[in-house]
Structures are given as structure tokens and as C-alpha cells.
Write a structure and sequence with these properties.
The chain is mainly alpha-helical. The protein has one domain (about 20-80). The protein is built from three helices and no strands. Helix 2 (about 20-35) packs across helix 3. The longest helix is centred in the C-terminal third of the chain and has 43 residues, at about 35-80. The model has no long low-confidence stretch (mean pLDDT about 90).
């Protein structure tokens, strides 16, 4: 009988399927970045593992706030 791998060992090689809508998003993002969908999945997984979901959410909120500030500054310069 073959010994089953531990959860820690299983985490070294992940395999999962995506719903077609998510698969398309991964394909588009990977293509835009010039990397393979597998590389995109690896990078995305490492980023979430490193920063967690909340870290990603905070970063996106910061980018959104910065974009709003830049738009306001731009409008002030262009429209006086």
C-alpha cells in the first residue's frame, strides 16, 4: 500500500480546475502579462499566500483611492 502524502507535501504541487469564466480571465490576464496560464496561477497563488486576501484587498483599495486623487488633480489642472 502506498503511503498517502501529508497535507504539507500536497501543498508543494497543487492541481485544480477553474470554472470556464475564471479560466478565461486567467487566460486573458496571463496573455496580457506575457506569461503562461500556469505561471500566472503560480504567481497569483504565491501573492495571496504571501499577503493574504486582506493584503490584496487593502492594496486594491489604495490603488483605487490613488486613482481618484490623480483624476481630481488632473481635472484641476486641465479645467482650472
Amino acid at each position: 500500500m502506498v503511503a498517502r502524502k501529508t497535507s504539507r507535501e500536497q501543498a508543494e504541487k497543487l492541481t485544480f480546475r477553474l470554472a470556464p469564466a475564471y479560466a478565461e480571465k486567467v487566460f486573458e490576464a496571463a496573455t496580457a502579462a506575457g506569461i503562461s496560464p500556469n505561471q500566472f496561477g503560480r504567481v497569483a497563488t504565491m501573492a495571496i499566500a504571501e499577503n493574504g486576501f486582506l493584503g490584496l484587498s487593502r492594496r486594491l483599495a489604495f490603488v483605487e483611492e490613488e486613482l481618484i486623487r490623480l483624476r481630481k488633480d488632473f481635472n484641476e489642472v486641465v479645467h482650472g
